[in-house]
Design a protein that fits this description.
By secondary structure, this protein is mainly alpha-helical. The protein is 64% helix and 0% strand. The protein has helices at residues 2-30, 36-47, 58-67, 95-121, 125-133, 136-145, 149-166, 170-180, 201-221, 223-237, 254-262, 279-301, 308-321, 334-347, 350-365, 378-384, 387-404. Helix 13 (308-321) packs across helix 14 (334-347), helix 13 runs antiparallel to helix 17 and helix 15 (350-365) runs antiparallel to helix 17 (387-404). The radius of gyration is 22 Å and the shape is globular.
Length: 409
């Protein structure tokens, strides 16, 4: 039986490797019409002495990007100002060479990650690789588009792993603070450093101090940048992305769904299901409240111990609420999914584990464009084309049920 299991695992990982190559590495090696341009162009322009606040005009940034040989478009808004220097070391190379270097770097980290997780969490390399295989589509997307999310996930594993091994939170908190200056979700990973004591406030203060220092530096560099960024952020939080609108089904978010259902637009959405723009924030805040209460009840059940599994379920709850998502965003869930699966193996039945696996793989892999249209039923057609949203909601709900139905978390 053990030999057969190893054969199955080997065959599955070979299939995953093929998908990674076909959908990620192969197109990523030559494609220069990707998200990588956003990061690369901003770093290149900073190198030339351009001001960050000018990057928030989409048309202006596109023109400036073309002046540094990024011919196939680039967009900076609504990134935080520190994002402009993320790819600084790559800005000394031409676009295609830089993208290939980034691709190879990400591939090396991907190979290394199962071994790092074994060191920190005492789990086998094979099991770590199997867990990562659930992310085959997000990983492929990240490799193809040259995104920053896998590197973020890797650093988060390092931060939380370092804390679990050393029991010292300073470095971990600083790393989370640095990541939070360019992405929002990492701040939630402070939950893994929390304990119900006065000591638990130190990681929060350290991370916030780090975030404030970085923010202060960029305010000094370009005082106008944060003003422009915060104006764009307001629209982003409500699902209205600069240059991308608020009706795109590809966003797979509650905001996109409610905009299509209730918010009319003469061009993009002339016939909503029920025109009542006021209903969108009401429903959104109701769902925020439900997610918040569910997380509170989980914490209370375990007497505010902030167990890794409960923190992980809470982070998945945050993904129910984000205003827009792409498949590579789910790479930030690598560590939460690891903790959840380990908890399910220990505390729940095989059936619960398999249900979670199916929901996780489905949420990360099924794309809206893969679902056929049913034009004769527009309402049903709209609903079925939000598979990522429904599956994440189902996963969060199922995990909350699992947490609440056991005596020990």
């Amino acid at each position: 039986m053990k030999k057969n299991w190893k054969i199955f695992v080997a065959l599955w990982l070979m299939l995953v490797a093929f998908v990674l190559f076909y959908k990620g590495i192969r197109p990523g090696w030559n494609d220069t019409k990707t998200d990588f341009n956003n990061y690369y162009a901003s770093a290149k322009l900073i190198q030339k002495g351009e001001s960050i606040h000018a990057f928030y005009s989409n048309d202006r940034f596109k023109e400036m990007a073309q002046s540094v040989a990024v011919k196939n478009g680039a967009k900076f808004s609504p990134f935080p100002p520190p994002t402009a220097v993320l790819y600084w070391p790559l800005s000394f190379f031409d676009l295609l060479t830089a993208k290939r270097i980034w691709l190879v770097f990400n591939m090396l980290l991907l190979v290394w990650l199962p071994f790092r997780m074994k060191r920190y969490f005492r789990s086998s390399v094979w099991k770590n690789a199997l867990m990562l295989s659930l992310f085959v589509i997000p990983l492929s997307s990240n490799l193809h588009f040259g995104q920053f999310y896998f590197v973020t996930a890797f650093v988060l594993v390092e931060a939380i792993g370092h804390f679990r091994v050393t029991k010292k939170s300073m470095l971990s908190s600083v790393l989370i603070g640095v990541l939070a200056s360019v992405k929002y979700v990492p701040i939630l990973f402070l939950g893994y450093l929390m304990r119900f004591s006065k000591e638990s406030m130190k990681p929060i203060f350290t991370a916030i101090a780090t975030l404030l220092v970085i923010t202060g530096i960029f305010v000094l560099i370009d005082f106008e940048a944060y003003g422009v960024y915060l104006r764009d952020l307001g629209g982003h939080v409500n699902g209205d992305l600069s240059g991308q609108g608020k009706y795109a089904i590809g966003f797979q978010s509650l905001d996109a769904l409610f905009n299509n259902l209730f918010v009319a637009d003469a061009v993009e959405n002339p016939k909503p299901f029920f025109e009542a723009e006021w209903l969108k924030p009401v429903l959104k805040w109701m769902i925020v409240a439900v997610v918040g209460v569910a997380c509170f009840l989980m914490l209370r059940k375990e007497k505010y111990a902030f167990s890794p599994s409960t923190v992980s379920v809470g982070i998945i709850g945050a993904f129910v609420l984000i205003p827009a998502s792409a498949s590579y965003h789910f790479l930030l869930l690598i560590l939460p999914i690891f903790f959840i699966l380990r908890w399910l193996v220990k505390e729940r039945s095989v059936g619960h584990f398999l249900i979670a696996i199916a929901l996780i793989f489905g949420a990360f892999s099924i794309q809206a464009y893969q679902i056929p249209s049913v034009e004769q039923w527009p309402f049903a057609d709209l609903l079925i084309h939000f598979p990522r949203l429904w599956l994440i909601v189902a996963l969060f709900s199922f995990l909350v049920y699992c947490k609440q139905s056991v005596k020990n978390s």
